[in-house]
Amino acid sequence: PPLYKQRYQFVVDFVKRHKPKKVVDLGCADCSLLRKLKFHRNIELLVGVDLDNSVMKQKMYTLAPFPCEYLKPADQPLTIELYHGSVTEKESRTKCFDLVTCIELIEHLLLADVERFSEVLFGYMLPNAVIVSTPNADFNPLLPGCPAFRHIDHKFEWTKADFQNWALEVCRLYGYVVEFTGVGKAPSNEESIGFCSQIGVFHKDPYRSGTFVRSESMENTSSHTLLYHVV
Ligand code: SAM
């Protein structure tokens, strides 16, 4: 399957294994991943955030229940909310989720904003688990005709080492542990290059609770606009 489907499947497999109740997808774009996640009955609150409200609006009504779901409601209702806002701003309605997904999002931020994003995500939102995927620049020479960056809107593309440095620093600052993996395998003779899409899976470090940095202002900040709400 194409790489984007492999990334969504990675998240779906994680959700099947860990059964989170509250999930937020940062940079949800046209809600493709949310549309897959809404069928997982363990989820009670599913939230999407994006800076581009026009792309979110394109297909957001497809998140609405099917008529048969009104006729035979599930035991546990599912709430879906879409917010227009930036992932570099604090929004208390995205705090303390079981899982935050950031699929091909971070490389669209200005490098200067990455630190602020990390603080908002790990120091303010305080999720139990986070999945971050981003292109692996080390893989680009294997992609025929690949320009400097894979997409015109990418502000940077990290090598395996760049990504791991960022992730390990975030873990040190905010008390998380990370596991590195990915989707899109390199050919067997080039395995050291790593995956085409590199993925970090973060969990709160059970041995370090209370000893890590928390965002300065923990107040109930609201910076996003609710675009869509359905139960
Ligand atoms: N996660 C989706 C997927 O995997 O199909 C879409 C990824 S798309 C390449 C990147 C998305 O990030 C875009 O929809 C863009 O609008 C959004 N984005 C970029 N900067 C953002 C920011 N500061 N806050 C929220 N969303 C942002």
Low-confidence stretches: none
CATH superfamily: Vaccinia Virus protein VP39
What's the N-to-C terminus distance?
A: 32 Å
Whole-number average pLDDT?
93
CATH architecture: 3-Layer(aba) Sandwich
How would you concisely characterize the structure shown here?
This protein has 231 residues and is α/β, with parallel strands linked by helices. The chain has 6 helices and 8 strands. Residues 4, 27-29, 32, 49-52, 55, 86-88, 103-105, 108-109 line the site of S-adenosylmethionine.
Written account of the structure:
This protein is an alpha/beta fold and 231 residues long. The chain has a single domain (3-230), classed as Vaccinia Virus protein VP39 (Rossmann fold). The protein contains six helices and eight strands. It has an eight-stranded mixed beta sheet, with helices on both faces. Strand 1, helix 2 (32-37) and strand 2 (45-50) form a beta-alpha-beta unit. The structure holds S-adenosylmethionine (SAM). S-adenosylmethionine (SAM) binds at residues 4, 27-29, 32, 49-52, 55, 86-88, 103-105, 108-109.
Give structural attributes:
eight-stranded mixed sheet, Rossmann fold, binds S-adenosylmethionine, alpha/beta, 231 residues
